[in-house]
Structures are given as structure tokens and as C-alpha cells.
Amino acid sequence: MKLCSPRISQTARFGRNPKLGGKRDMHRICIYVLVLLFAHSVSASEQSMLARVTVYWHSRGSKQCVSAAGAHLRNGHCAVDPRKIPYGSEVSFPDATCVAVDTGPAVVRRTAARRIGRTPSERNAIVVDRYFESKSQAVAWEALHPHFMKVRVVSPAPARTPVTQIQTNDELTADNPERIAATFLTTSGPFACVGIISGLRDL
User: Fold this and answer.
1) 90-92 and 77-79 strand pairing
2) Cα dist from 45 to 27, 49, 71, 179, 183, whole Å
3) Could you tell me which residues come within 8 angstroms of residue 181 by beta carbon, excluding any fewer than 6 positions away?
4) Cα-flanking dihedrals φ and ψ of residue 139, to 5°?
5) For all residues of the chain together, what is the average pLDDT?
6) How confident is the model over 24-52, as pLDDT tens digits?
7) Higher pLDDT, 81 or 66
8) Residue 157 host element (H or E)
9) Is residue 201 scored above 90 in pLDDT?
10) Which contiguous run of DSSP H or E holds residue 29?
11) In angstroms, rounded to a whole number, what is the distance separating the alpha carbons of residues 162 and 71?
12) Residue 198 scores a pLDDT above 70
């Protein structure tokens, strides 16, 4: 009588295939990167805020015309509370878009909003101080626009540093795909997954 030997899988007979295992690990890492990248893009979405918009200008008697962020002040700049609107953000008004580069005590304390606000939402509004190169420009703009208005704020994208070589220490291994995904995302941004996919072809 012919005896049938039990069927032995390729993994049990020859051990785990390193090529297949490595490819599965890289697929897991790529999925983690995509998830983190999606979450990052959602958190960086633009927002609309009610703002008390004030104006300021450079005084001729003042020698310094440099913002708190270090930029030389010019038309198209504005002062904000950096805790709510990061420097470098684009603040869109009905007539133009300015860049947040400056701040000041009255802006942070929202003095103008609390002083003339008639409703709770106006009194709780942020203050944006729009810069003009001359007093006449500032006064003319202020006379044509309401004190409170909706502004659209778009925060700048975080700085990226290209990745030239993947670290191969104990913390960055296929057994810890979350750590690799986070490292790729914070250093390469949207291009992180491109490198992973390219690596899959070499496995």
C-alpha cells in the first residue's frame, strides 16, 4: 500500500522566504506613510477666521523697519498672534493676500477687538494688523473697509530635508514600520512613498 506523506509548505521546508517577507514589510511601511501623509494634509488645511483688522505704517522718525520674523516690512505684510497664525502664513483679505511676518502686544492681547466688539464673536475675534508703507495708504484702506471681516488663513508647509540614505539602526527596521513611516514623512514629505515603491522593485 502506498503511503502519502504529509504535505509540507515551502516555508516549513526551506524557511521563510526573505524576499517575500521583505516585500510584505515594505508594503506595510508604504501604507503607514500614506496614512500619515493624509493626516498631515488634513491638519494643514486652510481655515477661515473672524478678524478685527487694524492698520499700521512705518514712521519716518523710526530707523528700524524690520518685522518680528526678521523680514523687511513692506506692503503685503501683516502682524498676527504667532500662537494662532504662524509666521509665513498667508492671510487673505477681500482685496489682497498678505504674509504674516510681524506681531505686537496689542495684536496678541486683541485690544482692538475687545474694545469695539459689539457681539461675543467680535470681542473674541483675532486681531490682524495690516502694514502699509505710508500713513495715507493705511488710513485710506481703513476708511473703505469694515472693522471686522472674515479672513482666510493658509499656514506654510513644514520644511523638508531630502533623505539620501535610510538609517539602518535598531530603531529603523521593518519590525517598527511606524517609526520608519514617521521618519520618511518628516524628512521627505509626499515623496517618501515614491522611494518605498521604488525599493519594492529591487526586492
Assistant:
1) unpaired
2) 28, 13, 25, 25, 22
3) 29, 32, 33, 35, 36, 192
4) -65, -40
5) 75
6) 666 666 565 554 554 444 455 689 999 99
7) 81
8) none
9) no
10) helix 18-43
11) 26
12) no
DSSP state of 51: E
Q: Where are the beta strands (DSSP E) in the chain?
A: 47-57, 77-79, 90-92, 97-102, 126-132, 148-154
User: Rounded to whole angstroms, how far apart are CA atoms 11 and 13?
Assistant: 6
Which triple of cell numbers denotes residue 155?
499656514
Query: Which amino acid makes up residue 189?
Result: G
In one-letter notation, the amino acid at residue 32 is Y
Residue 8 clears pLDDT 60, i.e. is over it: no
CA–CA separation, 173 vs 164, rounded Å?
A: 17
Q: Which three cell numbers stand for residue 116?
A: 469695539
Calpha distance 153→97 (Å, rounded): 9
Calculate ∠ Cα 34-35-37, nearest 5°. Answer: 65
> Percent of the chain scored above 70 by pLDDT?
53
pLDDT at residue 170, rounded to an integer: 45
Helical spans, DSSP H, in 72-191: 105-109, 111-116, 120-123, 135-144, 177-188
pTM of the model: 0.59
